[in-house]
From TrEMBL:
All residue ranges annotated as the Pseudouridine synthase RsuA/RluA-like domain in the record: 30-176
Keywords for this protein: Isomerase, rRNA processing, tRNA processing
Catalytic activity: a uridine in RNA = a pseudouridine in RNA; uridine(746) in 23S rRNA = pseudouridine(746) in 23S rRNA; uridine(32) in tRNA = pseudouridine(32) in tRNA
Coiled coil: none
Organism, scientific name: Alteromonas gilva
Gene3D superfamilies reported for this sequence: Pseudouridine synthase
Enzyme class, broadest EC rank: isomerase
Protein's job: Dual specificity enzyme that catalyzes the synthesis of pseudouridine from uracil-746 in 23S ribosomal RNA and from uracil-32 in the anticodon stem and loop of transfer RNAs. Responsible for synthesis of pseudouridine from uracil.
Protein name: Pseudouridine synthase
UniProt xrefs under InterPro entries: PsdUridine_synth_cat_dom_sf, PsdUridine_synth_RluA-like_CS, PsdUridine_synth_RluC/D, PsdUridine_synth_RsuA/RluA, RluA_PseudoU_synthase
Pfam families: PseudoU_synth_2 (PF00849)
Similarity remark: Belongs to the pseudouridine synthase RluA family.
EC number, as in UniProt: 5.4.99.-
């Protein structure tokens, strides 16, 4: 199946990982920081079979937990969750005003032409093929991603990605627009790309924000679940 005709993967069966059930990186009275596994929804889906999610699991332990931001089901990595209404409001404002900083890592197909650069392409929902997104210069919302090559061969590249905006599927579509789809991407990749990895090779490795109560700068990292690479400390561009 060509990527252009790949829609919502009708053959896909939701089977979220059960081990580890929850991986907490930090928590206090205001926030919870977790490492979400690939294959787990951030919030419940509409279908009864899609009820299991990160927030559902968290609320069994922290009944008042509230989602602040999301990661795609197939993406793993660091997320911050609010413990109450006030922290939810303050954290959400930081994401809205782009006062947070994030770093992702991805394994992409092929060899990038430049060692670093930026992708500045507006995105919009590809409505007939939702949840796919697409580049649309006329109607799309601004989307900016910085990238830096970590290592590469003729077949693939490990790249660090720092999104400035937070559009849905932004990193996946921006890498695809460069001609280097993320390996294992069932939604945007060709059959060869889908078959190249057992999961989407995209991981939210670092997240920085201000604590909603103390205003202290906090940074959390989750080790890469693929490849053999230990990232250096994250120097936020903010």
């Amino acid at each position: 199946m060509d990527a252009a005709t790949r829609t919502a993967n009708p053959d896909f069966i939701y089977a979220p990982p059960l081990t580890p059930y929850l991986q907490l990186l930090y928590y206090d009275d205001d926030i919870i920081v977790v490492n979400k596994p690939s294959g787990l929804l951030s919030v419940p889906g509409k279908a009864p079979a899609h009820k299991d999610s990160l927030i559902s699991r968290l609320q069994r332990v922290f009944p008042h937990a509230r989602i602040v931001h999301r990661l795609d089901m197939a993406t793993s990595g660091v997320m911050v969750v609010a413990q109450h209404k006030d922290s939810h409001r303050l954290l959400s404002k930081q994401f809205e005003l782009r006062q947070t900083a994030k770093r992702y890592y991805a394994r992409v197909a092929g060899k990038l032409a430049k060692p670093s650069g930026s992708v500045d392409l507006p995105l919009i929902c590809d409505w007939p093929n939702r949840p796919r997104q697409m580049v649309d210069a006329e109607h799309g919302k601004p989307a900016l991603t910085h990238y830096e090559v970590v290592s590469q061969s003729e077949q693939e590249t490990l790249v660090a990605l720092v999104p400035v905006t937070g559009r849905s599927h932004q990193l996946r579509v921006h890498m695809l627009a460069l001609g280097h789809p993320i390996l294992g991407d069932r939604l945007y990749g060709s059959d060869a790309v889908v078959g190249s990895a057992p999961r989407l090779q995209l991981h939210a490795e670092s997240l920085q924000f201000n604590h909603p109560t103390s205003n202290k700068v906090m940074q959390f990292c989750a080790p890469l679940p693929f490849g053999n690479y230990t990232p250096p400390p994250f120097n936020s561009p903010a």
